[in-house]
Design goal:
The protein is about 75% helix and about 0% strand. By secondary structure, the chain is mainly α. It has a single domain, classed as Farnesyl Diphosphate Synthase (Orthogonal Bundle), CATH 1.10.600.10. Strands 1-2 form a two-stranded antiparallel sheet. The structure holds farnesyl diphosphate and magnesium ion. The site of magnesium ion (MG) has 3 residues, from helix 4.
């Protein structure tokens, strides 16, 4: 991981500085909510992917500018990728603010969630501002392909989230449907970060396709790993309680795999219980009896090897993402993109 580590050391302070600069310009209450979610120690995966694809693809094109008239040129004539990269983090933060309200979550990255500190309405509106800010940052590049990709990713992310909410009301054991949901709610935004980086570098059709393929497969693997961690990570490392998805009545791959191996009657009864958790007026707030059963099911999912099964499914997507890189120029950024795949697969939070 040393190439990725080195690049992270150089890039993270710049990304964080740019995020802080943009955030400082926001109206006061929006700024407080934005800082709450942004300064809680996110991994900055999406901005980093945009930067790595930009730099890697630029080596192939030799292109240093977006367009002659672009207002986003540094004094050296090199296009400034950071606003585009930061737009991905603002977009991601907007989805998290909204998601924690929808899920009734109390903790995110070890901190009380924004809506519990600043109120639901304020947090929804602050999320809307971040969404708009992300779009404005992208629009400033004056490249319709970038704006189209980001708009498409937003549409698909929200659609994936709606699909998940519907599914919680009436969960079935369809792995296909689950994969469609996670592709929507997580993978398209990660894909957009990669694709936008490649487009901004003036990449050809082949480079753009590599970014799309890498992004979508990494995105699915990322969510599968997240879903595995939800059953296995220690709460103090993850910054959120163990078994959170089950508490919210969310049927993710570890639970689907577990339910599939149960005898028919037990499976039907457990699925009905999961549905009742999802339909609760206050999702996530469990009775003492449900808390005890929740603990037993989380342990049973682990004991049945379903966390490992989910991780090995994630590994298959990682292989596909790695293959997508082969058409790109060999360079330190490509190595870092490879290392990012392993980091995603083996992460502990
Ligand atoms: C986290 O999933 C949530 C997402 C990946 C997407 C959330 C998207 C929305 C709420 C739509 C709103 C969109 C915009 C553009 C403002 P999770 O709940 O499984 O993971 P978690 O454990 O991190 O909460
Ligand atoms: Mg959530």
């Amino acid at each position: 991981m040393h190439v990725l580590q080195g690049l992270l050391q150089d890039e993270l302070p710049i990304i964080n500085d740019r995020l802080a600069r943009e955030t400082r310009e926001l109206p006061e209450l929006v700024r407080a909510v934005a800082e709450h979610v942004l300064m809680a120690g996110g991994k900055r995966l999406r901005p980093l992917l945009a930067i790595l694809f930009f730099r890697c693809v630029s080596r192939g094109t030799g292109e240093r500018v977006l367009s002659a008239s672009s207002s986003l040129l540094s004094s050296s004539g090199e296009s400034d990728i950071y606003p585009l990269a930061c737009s991905m983090e603002f977009l991601h933060s907007a989805t998290l603010l909204h998601d924690d309200i929808l899920d009734g979550s109390d903790l995110r990255r070890g901190r009380t969630t924004a809506h519990l500190v600043y109120g639901k309405t304020e947090t929804i509106l602050a999320g809307d501002v971040l969404l708009a800010l992300a779009n404005r940052l992208v629009a400033e590049y004056g490249d319709a392909r970038l704006s189209w990709r980001v708009a498409e990713a937003i549409m698909r992310t929200v659609s994936g989230e709606i699909q998940e909410l519907e599914w919680i009301k009436c969960p079935t054991l369809s792995q296909e449907h689950y994969l469609e949901i996670i592709t929507g709610k997580t993978a398209y935004l990660i894909q957009a970060a990669c694709h936008c980086g490649a487009l901004a570098a003036g990449g050809d059709e082949q480079a753009a396709q590599a970014a799309l393929d890498y992004g979508i497969n990494l995105g699915v693997a990322f969510q599968l790993t997240d879903d595995a961690l939800d059953y296995s990570a220690k709460a103090e490392v993850a910054g959120k309680p163990v078994g959170n998805d089950l508490r919210e009545g969310k049927l993710t791959l570890p639970l689907i795999c577990y339910l599939e191996i149960l005898p028919e009657a037990e499976r039907r009864e457990t699925l009905a219980w999961v549905r009742a958790l999802g339909a609760a007026a206050d999702p996530g707030a469990l009775s003492a009896q449900d808390t005890a059963r929740h603990g037993r099911v989380v342990q049973a999912v682990r004991d049945a090897g379903c966390v490992e099964e989910t991780r090995s499914r994630a590994a298959r997507y990682i292989v596909l993402a790695e293959k997508a890189l082969t058409s790109l120029p060999e360079c330190p950024e490509r190595v870092a993109l490879q290392e990012a795949l392993q980091h995603t697969l083996h992460r502990e939070k």
